[in-house]
Amino acid sequence: MKGSSASLLFDDDFIGETFDPRRWKASITGLDRARTNGEAQAYLAEPQTIAVKDGHLSITSRYHAAPVVRAGDSYRISSGFLSTEDRFSFQYGLLEVRARLPAGLGFWPAIWLEGVESDGLKWPDVGELDLMENIGDPTWISAAVHGPGLGKRTPFIKRHYFSAADDVTAWHTYGTSVQQNGITFSVDGKSYLHVSRQDLEARDAWVFSRPKYIILNLALGGSYPASVNHYSEPFYGVSPHTLSEIKAGEGVFEVDWVRVSE
Predict the structure, then answer these.
(1) How far apart are CA 143 and CA 65, in angstroms?
(2) How far is CA 8 from CA 14, 132, 148, in A?
(3) Cα–Cα distance measured from residue 117 to residue 71, given in angstroms and rounded to the nearest whole number
């Protein structure tokens, strides 16, 4: 389900020694990212957290024996947050990302789209499309549509389940097609959730004709993982085993390529 070269709007195979700053912006906690959802990590723009090697982008979670202090808050875990904000956005099209995820309760990798803020509108009024979220269970990912009226409590959400032999730690292609009449989510080219514009407008406003930018990030813990795994220690929503994985350098969200086609 790759876009043809003639129809590509955005194409990054992560060839080189670092991510392309003309395409991607690395956000930093305390500068352009605030602490949200009770998450444990600070986002840093460092080679140890965001790197390109062997044709892959790696976002790595790290443990810090000495706390990292950002905007008055102390953090023992750092990670990475990349977006195409102010670099690339699109109105309609197909976004596909080939990626593999870490497994461990409390890892929260995500691939998502957020509407460009303009005319005084901010989230959730600009809309959010989560084409891949995972909270450490290797058997499933979820997709969701968040509009201005429903916000986080959206009914437009669904899980996609994997076989034990081909779970989230394997390479998969995650996609979402945004068109004038609806939004479709897919894994490896197979659709599993479609939200029509008509169904959404029966519950909320349609705001998905706005330009949208791409976000790739690896969060740790917070309200969503904690609501499922019920861990409060060593960090809110992060299990002791996951912390051991982070210390061993095994908490890595890898991306092979990102493409947007018409």
Answers:
(1) 35
(2) 16, 21, 30
(3) 24
